[in-house]
């Protein structure tokens, strides 16, 4: 699997590394370095949140800063940072680092099985589009690589950049807000 999907394995490894580093306190210095820069840090965290390999570090910023910023101000600022990253991703999605691996995954058994279910005669084109939009929205709003969500959106229809911007801002802001609120509740 590592040979077949090295970038995806590296992505999973980056999540594990970020969790371990945060859990053992190796990122405590990060919180001190950002002390007094809560809202600017949230913006930076938002920029990191959109990219697959840096999303765990964006989440670490949200967890560190979650108690120091107001969630209704911090989440939109982070959403703006994520939006800038997403617009960059949208403009170069065809050159994505994951493009070759996504192409390979498209022809794997599980994806072919899902494809056959979605393209069953009883599933309308409209329903397929709704499912793709919903899945793309979940990917964009979560810490998963937004590159996947952008590719899905690009496959549904021709999108205008302003529609992508509104969608990405809203979904990322909601995802980040949930992370901040969970941090404040659990921490």
Write structural notes for this entry:
The chain has helices spanning 6-23, 28-33, 38-49, 55-65, 71-92, 99-106, 109-118, 125-141, 146-156, 161-186. By secondary structure, the protein is mainly α.
Count of DSSP-assigned helices: 10
The parts where pLDDT drops under 50 for at least 5 residues are none
Number of domains: 1
Fraction in helix:
over 70%
Biggest sheet architecture: none
What oligomeric state best describes the polypeptide chains here?
Answer: single chain
What is the molecular shape? globular
Strand content: under 5%
Number-wise, the strands total 0
The ordered H/E elements are HHHHHHHHHH
In angstroms, what is the radius of gyration? 18 Å
Structural class: mainly alpha
State the end-to-end CA separation. 36 Å
Mean pLDDT: 79
Provide the fold topology.
Layout: H1 6-23, H2 28-33, H3 38-49, H4 55-65, H5 71-92, H6 99-106, H7 109-118, H8 125-141, H9 146-156, H10 161-186
What brief labels describe this structure?
mainly alpha
Short description:
The chain is mainly α and 187 residues long. The chain has helices at residues 6-23, 28-33, 38-49, 55-65, 71-92, 99-106, 109-118, 125-141, 146-156, 161-186. It contains 10 helices and no strands.
């Amino acid at each position: 699997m590592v040979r077949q999907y090295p970038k995806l394995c590296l992505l999973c490894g980056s999540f594990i590394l970020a969790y371990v580093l945060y859990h053992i306190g190796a990122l405590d210095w990060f919180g001190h370095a950002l002390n007094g820069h809560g809202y600017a840090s949230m913006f930076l965290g938002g920029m990191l949140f959109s990219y697959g390999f840096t999303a765990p570090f964006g989440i670490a910023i949200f967890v560190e800063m979650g108690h120091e910023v107001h969630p209704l101000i911090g989440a939109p600022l982070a959403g703006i940072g994520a939006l800038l990253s997403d617009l960059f991703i949208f403009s170069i999605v065809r050159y994505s680092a994951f493009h070759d691996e996504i192409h390979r995954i498209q022809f794997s058994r599980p994806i072919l099985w899902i494809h056959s279910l979605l393209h069953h005669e009883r599933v309308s084109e409209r329903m397929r589009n709704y499912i793709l939009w919903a899945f793309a929205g979940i990917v964009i709003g979560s810490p998963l690589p937004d590159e996947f969500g952008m590719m899905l959106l690009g496959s549904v229809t021709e999108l205008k950049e302003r529609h992508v911007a509104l969608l990405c801002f809203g979904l990322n802001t909601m995802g980040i807000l949930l992370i901040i609120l969970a941090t404040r509740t659990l921490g």
